[in-house]
Amino acid sequence: MKLYTSALLLVSSYSVAANEPVTVTPIEPVLVAMDNQDIDQQFYMGKYEVTVAEFQRFVQATGYTVPNKCMVFTKSQWPSPDKPGSWDSPELVNEPFRPVVCVGVQGAIDYAKWLTKETGKPYRLPTIEEYEFAALAGQKSRFAFGEDYEHSDVCEYENVEDRANIAAVKLHHGVEYTRSVDCNDGAIYHTVVGMYRPNSFGLHDMLGNVRELTQTCIEYKKDDNKHCSRYAIGGSAWHWQPRDIVKERWTAADFIGSIEGFRLVLDAKELAIDHSEQFKEALLHAQKRARIEHNKLKSLPSAPKSLVSKDLRDQQVQLDWEAAHGEGVTYALYRSVLDSKGKGTRQWQLVKDGLSAPNYRDSNPLSSFISYKVHAVKEGMQSKASNIAYSGQYPKLAIGQKVEAEHYFSQRHSMLSKKDELQVVGLSTNADHHTPDGYIPFKPAWLKFDLSSETSSAVTVNVRMRGAKDTLLEFWQGHHLVARFNGHGGTEFKEVSVSGSVIKGADQLEIRSIGNNGALIDWFELIPNHIDD
């Protein structure tokens, strides 16, 4: 077994392109028979996504090169077009039984052609219809394993954006995503194939791990019906929350990324010989190694619950929360301060880490309006945040006053952002962090402000913002619509003005984003035009 494994895992790099091709035996995929009786189609599909070990054979045999322009997302690299990577970057190939990535649609097609030539069997990429049929495994639900609207069962079947992923991305890159499935699959980035339960057809990783390239072209280049510009793609991968299998997703024909991989299908009604036994044996050893790491990550604590604050004498604040389960768990407490005069207001700052008890007493010397959150921590990795608790007095805002967007007292699906030295608030277009192409489920986003009016009045609403032309924002005062307006469509921040009206009363002012086109807001003001009797 050791001799075979070392022979299987050939080391390759782009330097082989300068050498003469060598004789290499390809690794054929482990196949599962598919029978779509609705259209009378029989074919075989790869049980797993094509691995590094398989693709390495192709490169070793042919000297094939992939453009060095991959958007690499790993422990050490955040995806950026300014720092492209390659498919054989060490972090991507050090485990040969993970899916091969960073090869793009053309690389996947060329691999299938080579395997066909070498074996005499018609291997190819699946169509999107074949992918969907296989991924659903005959079910009519959102996923092959059921509807799972709470996203609590998916971790048994798939490697998706989960608690472990959220914790690791924050540790590795300092980026805090706030949404994920409500479970822990034990993986961070893409992992060894076949680690999770298969669907009822016997196929693994059909929804997660990596997104899967297909041969289906959904858009051709203008004035050129022979060259595809967009291909359909399946799945959600480790970086995105899962959504329905049968929802349009696409990738540009020339895009190359480390979240995209592929599997093959074989056009045949009968399979004469299975040449994959050695591969399957070596894969079992890789899965055992990976499972050790998965089990460690599965011990990460969940987000703390029931954070509450109580204002005490002498400007002290008592904070308490439920204790997290597990050994070696500590807590990290953060606060954000609403400072109407200071810069960087509402940014989260660490108050104290390494807390062993589920409580802490903080001080609020300025009597400011403070938000608190707490994370459970184990081995340097933080859970998702607890609920938010508040302390202090929120400042009263008035009609006619210029209000910074970050001076909200509550929000839903928004995020603070720095743009051109400005601190702005973004109303999210993708609150649940789904893949950004194709259909995105709508979730409303809003900001609430304690802004009351002593009179009824016509007003001019001025907003400094950035948003697409089809962005639609609404200002509401309780059940009264104050104003509605669209974005200006530019890439710069501009002041937009519309006419509106306010009514007498103490109802809170709410800014709502309508639809999936978000906006970045710097400030707003409501200027009275006249006062009604």
Low-confidence stretches: 1-19
In this structure, how is the largest beta sheet organized?
Answer: 6 strands, antiparallel
The CATH homology group name of the largest domain: paralog of FGE (formylglycine-generating enzyme)
The tally of structural domains comes to 3
Approximately what portion of the residues adopt beta-strand conformation?
25-35%
Integer-rounded radius of gyration: 27 Å
Helix and strand composition category: alpha+beta
Number of distinct helices: 7
The end-to-end span amounts to 91 Å
Instruction: Please give the CATH class of the largest domain.
Output: Alpha Beta
Instruction: Provide the CATH architecture of the largest domain.
Output: Alpha-Beta Complex
CATH topology name of the largest domain, in short, is paralog of FGE (formylglycine-generating enzyme)
Percent helix? 10-25%
Number of strands: 29
Shape: globular
**Mean of all residue-level pLDDT scores:** 86
